[in-house]
Design goal:
globular, 13 helices, single chain, mainly alpha
Length: 312
């Protein structure tokens, strides 16, 4: 397992290289000039030229890319708009995004897996049809629209939860109140997809011979479902959750914007509007590292779920 972990971490190098090249190319192909965006349209040509020289924007593209990469990994990359170290700025916002993602994942897993199991056990029942209809709705609706609906229902009509803002960390009461709506909005797609996959994985396992054998031996239905069936259906469910984490990061950009959440996603959006190329570069690279590490942890969990899996 150690060798496998080292190999996966080494693959992070070409991945970051590809992501950095792609992000840099998109930034340079986008219309607008960072110096003009910083100084405004009324700035003189001399002031714009000085700003471009200050931030090395007058250099050839390959030199700008190399300097940006060197500065990022040395921790010296500076934001154009915020006038600070990019790594420090992103790390200040990262805990808010991770807390939101953790709560969203927790809500999705707690709700979707039991619903998927019950739908599989009670196939073709009213509960099955109702839960699958809601799951289909959850997969289809955009994240930002879910957030708007939740704000209208719980903040405008019922007035029981705050509509936006950050109230503190997850373990504080006020922080949890502010986090419930964005977490629900972000978890809806994961909840829907996990419910559907749990149901299909359980249906496939329930029809296996060893399940019928366990029932024939008089094993209780609960033990058959939870110990024999669900345990063997966990691998595809875990794979789906790991894959959906990437979509959660993408959805966090929209969710944090809708709910004015001070995370990395909203920071990246503000940096894009302000043409802060170093900050956009740093946000995307850091989130790519977090995503790869989370997927590595998911892969390592496979070994605990199924000891037959070998990493050699």
């Amino acid at each position: 397992m150690l060798n496998y972990t080292i190999r996966r971490l080494l693959l992070l190098i070409p991945l970051l290289l590809f992501v950095s090249l792609f992000v840099f190319a998109i930034l340079k192909l986008s219309p607008g000039d960072p110096a003009t965006a910083l100084l405004g349209d009324q700035a003189t040509e001399e002031a714009i030229a000085l700003a471009r020289a200050k931030y090395a924007l007058d250099q050839p593209f390959y030199l700008q890319y190399l300097q940006m990469m060197v500065n990022f990994f040395s921790g010296e990359l500076q934001s154009i708009f915020y006038k600070g170290n990019v790594l420090s700025i992103v790390l200040q916002r990262l805990p808010a995004t991770l807390e939101l993602g953790f709560l969203s994942l927790l809500i999705a897993v707690i709700i979707s897996i039991p619903v998927g199991i019950i739908s599989a056990v009670r196939r073709n029942s009213f509960f099955d049809y109702a839960s699958m209809s809601v799951a289909m709705f959850g997969v289809s609706i955009p994240v930002f629209f879910t957030g708007i609906l939740l704000i209208y229902l719980f903040a405008v009509i019922l007035k029981v939860l705050p509509a936006s803002g950050y109230g503190g960390h997850l373990w504080t009461i006020e922080g949890l109140r502010h986090m419930i709506l964005p977490a629900l909005s972000l978890s809806f797609v994961l909840m829907a997809s996990t419910t559907r996959l749990t149901r299909s994985a359980m249906l496939e396992v329930i029809n296996q011979d060893y399940i019928r054998t366990a029932r024939a031996k008089g094993v209780s239905r609960f033990v058959v479902i939870m110990h024999h069936a669900f345990k063997n259906a966990l691998i595809p469910i875990t794979t789906n959750i790991g894959n959906q984490i990437a979509r959660m990061f993408a959805g966090a950009v929209l969710t944090e914007t809708v709910f004015a959440w001070p995370g990395v996603g909203r920071l990246a959006v503000n940096a894009i509007f302000r043409r802060d190329e170093p900050l956009v570069f740093g946000c995307v690279l850091l989130m790519a590292v977090v995503y790869v590490i989370i997927n590595l942890l998911v892969d390592l969990v496979y070994g605990f779920l199924n000891p037959q899996i070998s990493y050699d």
